Amino acid sequence: MGIVHGVSGSGATVYVKPIETVELNNQIVTLRDREAAEIQRLLQEYSDLLRGVSRSCASSSRASAGSTSSRPGRVSDGGSTPAPARLSDGGRA
Questions:
Q1: How far apart are CA 31 and CA 17, in angstroms?
Q2: What are phi and psi for residue 82, nearest 5 degrees?
Q3: Is the pTM of this model over 0.70?
Q4: What is the dihedral angle through the alpha carbons of 83, 73, 50, 32, rounded to the nearest 10 degrees?
Q5: What is the pLDDT of residues 2-22, one digit of tens each?
């Protein structure tokens, strides 16, 4: 016994899903739907978070751009520039 899902164009073949698999398939579909909803929720949450960080960085950047005389991308402490770190044999500073 099972559930008929379709019939071939010629009518010679009937596609049947065994009744024992119906509940398992329903669980799989439900879990996939829940997974998709959770992925969407996380993407929305991270997008909102990044949107806030982006706005904060942009306003901070505008505020500091008017108050500094150093070139963009450089931090000036008024002292000399430190020598670059030497790499050890392992490639780490």
A1: 20
A2: -70, 155
A3: no
A4: -60
A5: 899 899 999 999 999 999 999
